[in-house]
């Protein structure tokens, strides 16, 4: 949706079940859906649209492993090489004493790394202006959008008929 001057024909739905039925119908009619917008995650929508599973959890594991290695390595270095002090009768290398800090750094690295990765992939950095089709999409409406740039009037009428046949509460055209 980052191309300028793209005509988008979209329909708004009041219920996620109506949206799911409409997406199934669009797939049955071999209509090319540009995008689907929902105010919250809709279970079962990703497989209908043919979207692959997110790989963000793999990145989270990698960031967590880096945090774990960093925490354990740093604690080992500090207490065995840099500042070797025996306190509480413990030896220099006391792995059980390192576990809380290691765990906290694992969680910190994984969470911050996943947020930065997610923002990078989705282009959600501060100052980025993303066009929205309708403000109600983020509140209580569900939307199916079709790219209508260069479409003939008969194709647009076919898409409008699709929306009316699938129970869309509103159909609009917008240039983004």
The succession of helices and strands, N to C, reads EHEHHHEHE
- Low-confidence runs: none
Broad shape: elongated
- Biggest beta sheet summary: 4 strands, antiparallel
> Radius of gyration from the CA trace?
25 Å
How many distinct helices? 5
Strand content: 5-15%
Task: Please give a structural write-up.
With 176 residues, this protein is an alpha+beta fold. The chain has two domains: 7-50 and 133-175, Alpha-Beta Plaits (2-Layer Sandwich), CATH 3.30.70; 56-122, no CATH class. Helices cover 49% and strands 12% of the residues. The protein is built from five helices and four strands, in the order E-H-E-H-H-H-E-H-E. It has helices spanning 16-28, 45-49, 56-82, 95-122, 153-165, and strands at residues 7-13, 35-37, 142-147, 170-175. The chain has a four-stranded antiparallel beta sheet. The chain is elongated and about 80 Å long. The termini are close together.
What does the secondary structure layout of this molecule look like, with pairings?
Layout: E1 7-13, H1 16-28, E2 35-37, H2 45-49, H3 56-82, H4 95-122, E3 142-147, H5 153-165, E4 170-175
Antiparallel strand pairs: 1-3, 1-4, 2-3
């Amino acid at each position: 949706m980052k191309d300028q001057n793209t005509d988008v024909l979209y329909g708004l739905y009041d219920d996620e079940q109506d949206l799911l039925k409409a997406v199934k119908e669009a797939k049955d009619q071999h209509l090319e859906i540009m995008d689907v917008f929902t105010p919250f995650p809709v279970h079962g929508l990703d497989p209908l649209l043919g979207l692959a599973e997110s790989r963000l959890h793999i990145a989270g594991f990698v960031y967590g492993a880096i945090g774990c290695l960093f925490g354990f390595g740093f604690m080992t270095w500090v207490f065995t090489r840099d500042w070797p002090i025996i306190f509480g009768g413990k030896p220099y290398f006391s792995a059980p004493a390192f576990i809380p800090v290691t765990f906290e750094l694992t969680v910190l690295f994984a969470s911050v790394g996943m947020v930065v990765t997610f923002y990078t992939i989705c282009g959600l950095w501060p100052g980025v202006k993303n066009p929205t089709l309708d403000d109600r999409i983020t509140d209580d409406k569900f939307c199916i959008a079709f790219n209508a740039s260069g479409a003939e009037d008969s194709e647009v009428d076919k898409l409008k008929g699709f929306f009316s046949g699938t129970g869309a509460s509103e159909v609009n055209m917008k240039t983004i």
